[in-house]
What does this fold into?
Amino acid sequence: MKKYQTSFKIAIRILFLSLCFFAIKSSSCKYDDAELRRNIQVIENRVTTLEEWKTTVNTSIESLKTVVTSLETKNFIVKVDPVKDADGKEIGYKITFQNGESITIKHGIDGIDGADGSDGKDGADGKDGADGKDGSDGVDGVTPVIGVAQDDDGLYYWTVNGEFLTDNTGKKMPVTGPKGDPGKDGKDGVNAIAPQLRINQTGIWEISIDNGQTWTEMKDDNGDFIDATGEQGPQGEKGDKGDKGDKGDKGDKGDKGATGPTGATGATGPRGDSMFESVSYDADYVYFTLVAKDAQGNPIVLVVPRAPTITIAFADGNGLVGIGPGSVLTLNFTGLTPQTFNSLVAELKNESGICLTDIVTRANPFLSIAKPVFTNGKCESTTISFDEVLVEVSGEEAMLRVTLIDEKGKQYTAFRVVKMFAEAVEAVAYNGGTYKLTEDLTLYDYLALDIPAGKKFTLDLNQRKLTAEGITIPNDGSDITFKNGDLDLNKDISMKCSNSSVTFDGVDLTSTTDVAIRCGENNDPNYKNNTIKIVNSTITSLATGIILFNKNVLEVEGSTINHGYFGITQSGNYTGSNVKVVNTQIAGKYSGIYLSNQATGATNILFVDNGTISSTDESPIEVKKTNITVKNSALTSTAATQSYSVNPGGSNGVGYGIVLAGYAVGTAYEGTYTFENNSFTLPGASKIVKYNGTGNNGLDVIL
It folds into this structure.
């Protein structure tokens, strides 16, 4: 038994020695990829750093764009705040502009040196070392320098490596887009798009000028692509051949090799994360020095003025505004204190040469400026009042100038052009808004409601009376409402405009002339597409209540039209009106509704529902080339005889309820007609007749 135990122990020892030999043998053949992994990690770190640098550069480009924009728009800098890191070291500035925008500029610094290489591994025992490969010195990669430069036209453009950057058409790319041409709506020009950079898969720099939609490979002055990595350096000298080592004894472990030399210092990193070399400032200006240089190698410096100590401006801007008796304009201040305030002067000089002046220390019967009131040591605004304006003709323009003088005698001035009106109601109408009567008002001159396009004006009569020569509405695209009171006119309300809207709501309108409301002008087809709405109102005139010309819309509801000849009429020279009459009474000598028309013109549209229309001498309704609908209405004519005669250019039907007439001799009626549930009071004549084109009295009886 002891013999077997000894044999078993010997077998175990042999097996253990075999396993140790196999393990040693296997470990000597295993591939060590630690160095490759370290190289991959270094490359990944460099790519990450480059991506971060690219992001920072794009941010700096946007900051540079803001600076240049401020130069071209004459924007001021109001505040400069240092930016510090966690250790309290100043690393840049936060710049705040007068328009509320702000940017952060970091100081430009050199990149840090690359880390030392790691120690070499222990040398392996055994065979002679192979000849070392020739080493090659790499050169720094070429990083395009993005900058700006001012061209002969005074604008700033993007540069790459000192050369102007161009788009696909060869045009230089501005830092800010050009301002749009002065137009009616005064829109600003479109801002330019900041270029973006990246490295493609082949290692070439690419640029995008359309927010990354398309990318173009960048080239240098010779037309060669710009590599993100530098060219391979010259071949190094061949190393000396190592000495042949002594053959070691079989099976014995060799001595540990000597530690390899320290790796070479890495290349200097790229330029720091700012396009600005430095930012400095004094009491009047902020100086932005760029990393990029001009063609002569001189630093590019952008100088932006700082905001003045005091500013003065009109609260509603500097656009054209109407003023009249009682008008008030507001002035806004920045930085005004009791210590800096000395005097404030307002001057108004009109086209006639009359100059009105007021200083806060004395009174003026026409123009007065309020003394600044300081709260907690600051004044933010004051007002200018116009108690009386010397105007010979409403609409005259004048120059208004306000001058603020500080304790040092320095002047701060605000200018604007104003329109002067003899009446406050005219000024409010011009500026848009609501004017409310507090008492009866008489205007001795013709009242021109000069309302700019797109503005709304409401004249609230407030159950009072406005007496005037007449009212003219001259501008296209205006919106006017008269409500709640009386309008007494010696002439008409004349709409010499297009695409405008006038509403009468609860108004008693009386005209002592031939026409109460004139929409358009005879022999002028340019006045068209207006809308008139009459609600719960009364219209009274000597001849015609409402006359329409070219392609207008009339809506009457719950109202009364009293007239001498025609209640609603359209001139025969024009076409295409749309008339809707609901729950309305129309009474007069001739036709209540008379729509004539050119033979070749557009068709009119007439809709009457629950109307009461009467005529003493002719027919209540007569239309030509009109699509007509009349229902639930009462029509009355007191004409003793019934007749119809065709005359060149038109004709009149007498004594009938409704006449559907042609335009000229031999022309039959054109249009559609619908009549429902109507009543007629006539002296025995036919209720509804249609002209058939057969000459005098060529009528077909419909009802």
